[in-house]
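Tutorial, part two.
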Amino acid sequence: MRQIRLALPVAQATTLVTVDTARAALGVDAETVTGLCESGQLVAFELQTATAARREIRIWVDSIRGHIDGIRAAADPAEEIEAIIGHTAAEWIACTQVAQRFCVHRRSVYRWTDEGDLDAHLVGRVLQVRRSSLVPFLNGRRIR
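Running the prediction step on this input gives:
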């Protein structure tokens, strides 16, 4: 079956997308997208929780754009992580912002906190995630 590439708008605050979104943007099947992630052609992360039964891959939007244009999005992994997390001086980021940027449910962010993967605390009824804990979290889950 012939597949076509779709132009998909993504919210500016969303920096990671699902395999299905990447599949639609690239016009390929899910196995091809996974192969591109595992070969390092797309910058991707394993974001499933420890108790998850299935693999949850999220792909950096800029690496998809770069793949389509035939260029590497960023040369330095630290710059890629910084772009994914967002350029802000704030030490704490609301759980909902992390969930939106990573294209996951906020419950996943709570689970990562409960599992000790992220440093966070409640401010009133809002879970705040320490920005600096996101760097080792993403580095440890990067697909290489």
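Residues 16-141 form one domain. In part three we will examine how such features are distributed along the chain.
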